[in-house]
Amino acid sequence: MSESTTRGRRSPFARRDRTPGPRATFAQLLPFIFEHRPVLIWVAVLSVVGALASLAQPLLVSQVISIVEAGEPLGWIVWGLIALVVVSGVISGYQHYLLQRTGEGVVLSSRRRLVAKLLRLPIAEFDTRRTGDLVSRVGSDTTMLRAVLTQGLVEAIGGTVTFVGALIAMLIIDPVLLGLTVLVVAIAITTVTLLSRRVREASHRAQEKIGDVAAAVERAISSVRTIRAAGATEREIRAVERDAEGAWEMGVRVAKISALIVPIAGIAMQVSFLVVLGVGGFRVASGAITVANLVAFILFLFMMILPLGQAFGAITSVNQALGALGRIQEILDLPDEDAHDRELAPLALVVGEANAGVPPDAPAIEFDDVHFAYAATRQDPADPANDSPDEHLPEPNVTERQPVLRGISFQVPWGQRIALVGPSGAGKSTILALIERFYDPSVGAVRMGGLDLRSLDRAELRAQIGYVEQDAPVLAGSLRDNLKLGSPDATDAQCEHVLRAVNLGSVLDRDPAGLDAAVGQDGIMLSGGERQRLAIARALLAAPPILLLDESTSSLDGMNERMMREAIDAVSEGRTLIVIAHRLSTVVDSDRIFVVDDGRVIGDGTHGELVASVPLYRDLAAHQLLV
Question: Name one GO molecular function term (predicted).
Fold first, then answer.
């Protein structure tokens, strides 16, 4: 195991609570909504038309009562009232459909933005964040944004028209009854305003707890074999249940606060109705108003309270959405991997013959006094397993930076095979990570063709490099999907050729689907050696000028290792190859071997030279019976 797994990477069984992320503002919510401006404008127009149709109904009812009292025929007024009711219903149904569809559009656009951001984040972010929590932000948190549109925010436009129109009509009918009504409504609005902030805070914490559950489930599922082999199934079930209970408790807290807000509109309506009915009845008896006016006032009262209830619902849904948006915005506000590249190199260069700035005799790769360190944080006393580096927590939590490379300097000429050997944790995998520019050096420079990697376009740089990681990740999908990940234009014939070159012909032949054969989640349908060879085949298919192989033969038996070496020998001809290996038998014929220990190069040369001059290498070779 190399230092890539020992530098402080978070244990899959470790757990910790992250510092709460920033709270979103309503202004940050608007861009998600305004992406659908044309539809929302049309919905707003429908909402206003529906409000006007509703406001006309009490006036017609009042006219009906007056006509009936006068003993005159109703005539067209009844049909007009029926038409208004039908129109209001049709508008309401169509408006509901548009809002639901637009709400789904908001969820889709937010997921697109979040996924695009996630896949462009610096590698360091993935070193310190839980995969399940990130998945929860894409799935659960984005869904919360739908409620903003489907639970009253846009409808509040028409509701405002209804509310104001009802107030004006009620003022004309009876200012005294209106004054009593406004008093009750003012108390309700004040109460909702005081509770709304608590809804946002509780919703934010509830979404964090949901993220904890997703992270716990992802951790348990991804390590299910290890958990069962260790007899830890019941303990892990209880651990996930504790996270689920935490999410339940926060959900109940949101429900309690919402339960205080939701009935306020109903209570306000009932109290207002009783006050209006009692005082209004007295005023009818005294002759201050007519029965028709009292009925119209009561109908306008209901129309005023209804949008008020919608507004309270909108306040609740918006605050819940803002709680979730805070977690989404926390990711969206992070800089992309290349966010500061223009500051480092205002004119990103391209590697290749067309670049006149490339010195003709410059080495393929050069490390010039490179120092590098991963950030370390204090352990949470409640979580002794938390040893992951996290440079994104607040500064008081950062204790020091753990040095990994301490003045590394070496050169790799074009077309040569170079090996990096040394004990685990020496810094070998970090060297490859710096060449791929997953990280930048703390001090010093890494160069390709004489050019500082920080002056090169990242995409162009990585197009020059084939990289096979130590754990040889295989993506869920088919053999073809995995092979064409870095070579989308490769033909089936090329795919089959490279599979047979790495001794995967049996995998190709044993399934009638051929290249369409499924490999399963994380390549579970392949053996460890087959997964490693498939990852190597993926890199070889792209045939880049430089190949980086990190423990590329560690999972292979003797026969497959020999065939793999032959395949690499064939494909590396005329290319630069940098190999990390613990099994020295795979690299003894390298052009040059660098011995790395404690972040430094302590010797370089051929196998024979190193056996004679470097005690550490001699000990490694002796343990593997190579001396």
Answer: ABC-type oligopeptide transporter activity
Question: What HEC string does 428-496 produce?
Answer: HHHHHHHHCCCCCCCEEEEEECCEEHHHECHHHHHHCEEEECCCCCCCCCEHHHHHCCCCCCCCHHHHH
Count Cβ neighbours within 10 Å for each residue of 574-600 and write b for 16 or more, e otherwise.
ebbbbbbbbbbbbbbebebbbbbbebb
**pLDDT tens string 399-444:** 446 789 999 999 999 888 999 998 888 899 899 999 999 888 989 9
Contacting residues for 276 by C-beta, under 8 A, at least 6 apart: 177, 180, 181, 294, 297, 298, 301
CB 507 within 8 A of CB 568: no
Query: Which of helix, strand or coil describes residue 145?
Result: coil
Secondary structure percentages of the chain, helix, strand, coil, to 5 = 60, 10, 30
Express each pLDDT in 222-277 by its tens digit: 666 667 666 777 878 888 888 888 888 887 887 777 777 767 766 776 777 777 77
SS3 92: helix
Q: What is the pLDDT of residues 283-336, one digit of tens each?
A: 888 878 888 888 888 888 877 777 776 776 677 777 777 778 888 888 888 888
Query: CA 55, CA 127: separation in Å to the nearest integer?
Result: 59
Distance CA 398, CA 402 (A): 11
Strand order in the sheet with 465-468: 465-468, 546-550, 576-580, 417-421, 592-597, 600-605
Residue 455 token pair: 């002056």
pTM of this prediction exceeds 0.70: no
pLDDT class of 595 with cuts at 50, 70, 90:
very high
Q: Which residue of the set 155, 551, 561, 573 is catalytic?
A: 551
- Please tell me whether residue 134 adopts helix, strand or coil conformation: helix
Residue 363, pLDDT > 80, answer yes
How far is the CA of 118 from the CAs of 111, 138, 325, 333, 390, in angstroms? 10, 9, 15, 11, 17
Q: Of all helices (H) and strands (E), which one includes residue 195?
A: helix 175-222
Residues with Cβ < 8 Å from 178, sequence gap 6 or more? Answer: 167, 170, 171
Candidates 381, 402, 377, 373; CA nearest to 389 is 377
Q: Which residue has the tokens 């490390």?
A: 367
For 269, the token pair is 């309506």
Q: Which two tokens stand for residue 477?
A: 């999908």
Question: Is 208 tagged catalytic?
Answer: no
Q: How far apart are CA 32 and CA 105, in angstroms?
A: 9
Got the DSSP string for 345-391? Answer: -SS-B--STT-TTS-TT--SEEEEEEEEEEEEEPPBTTBTT-----T
